């Protein structure tokens, strides 16, 4: 098996998990599921004894202190500090330009929950084997419900016992189309986890988004190292077009592949997703935080309190969050709108 370099993307503000997630302490750096933060868990899934090289973390200035505090003293780790946010194609290209051309990159978001680390490791090895053959591989997350909030991957013909060609990348569907995908059984969620060799990714990026490839290469060439930190040239990087890796590369390459992954995955993209990732009692209720909570005759309720006692009676499909002086209450149906609250936007 080739040595796999984890590339951990650390950005965003997690406004849909306000008030717990804030600009000063966003979602990746919170222990939302279990005792480890999502970022620490992402690092922990890629141990040296599992065939993984030291990680490369790509983050912005505002997250740098959190990254370094939680990264710890990992020998050989690199932290690439983005001068500005230019989306995932540029972020991944920064890491690629700092690695040997034959290295296999495993690109992982820092803010996802994966409940089955063993299944993740198996999928990572299968993806790395395909990457060694020149494929650009996506993890196809097993679709367990008709989800309208994710993009989908359509499975094509088999490449080997564990991998398939990606027949189609599909944008977020409406509910009826999502139901049809689930029934057909050959569609998986696109979880934004990728594996490819450095040279293959950069070749495809140069072919389909040459201005991104050239701009990032120049920013890295003009950049400076500072211990484990690397700072690309800010002025050059600011001119790089902002485009996702899906649009820039994965939807254009003829070498797109997918590895199915059934690993208890969640993007923890909102309070409902967190509720589903937590342990729930027989009535579907979950509790987290340090505050005392009492529920009477409740169904499918999440209460997250950092101190004040919360008592809930007779509610169903509701989320209650207490964070200091901020209290947020929503129905499960309203969780997607949390990011539009003034508190979340002005945090």
Secondary structure layout plus pairing:
Elements: E1 4-10, H1 38-44, E2 56-60, H2 64-71, E3 78-82, H3 87-96, E4 104-109, E5 113-114, H4 117-132, E6 136-142, E7 152-158, E8 164-170, H5 175-184, E9 187-197, H6 198-208, H7 210-221, E10 224-226, E11 229-231, H8 234-238, H9 245-250, E12 256-261, E13 265-266, H10 271-277, E14 286-288, E15 293-296, E16 299-305, E17 310-313, E18 316-323, E19 326-331, H11 342-345
Parallel strand pairs: 1-2, 1-4, 2-3, 3-11, 6-12, 14-16, 15-17, 16-18
Antiparallel strand pairs: 4-9, 5-13, 6-9, 7-8, 7-9, 8-12, 10-11, 18-19
Helix pairs in contact: 3-7, 6-7
Description:
The protein has eleven helices and 19 strands. The protein is an alpha/beta fold and 347 residues long. The chain has a five-stranded mixed beta barrel. A four-stranded mixed sheet has the order 14-16-18-19, with helices on one face. Strands 5-13 form a two-stranded antiparallel sheet. The chain is globular and about 60 Å long.
- From N to C, what is the helix and strand string? EHEHEHEEHEEEHEHHEEHHEEHEEEEEEH
Based on DSSP secondary structure assignment, what is the total number of beta strands?
19
What are the segments in which pLDDT stays under 50 over at least 5 consecutive residues?
none
State which percent range the strand residues make up.
25-35%
Major β-sheet profile: 5 strands, mixed, barrel
Give average pLDDT, whole number.
95
Give the CATH topology of the largest domain. Answer: Spore Coat Polysaccharide Biosynthesis Protein SpsA, Chain A
How many structural domains in the coordinates? Answer: 2
> Helix content range of the residues, please?
25-40%
CA(first)-CA(last) distance: 45 Å
The structural class is: alpha/beta
Shape: globular
Rg over alpha carbons: 20 Å
Number of helices: 11
Side by side, the strands of the main sheet go 6-9-7-8-12
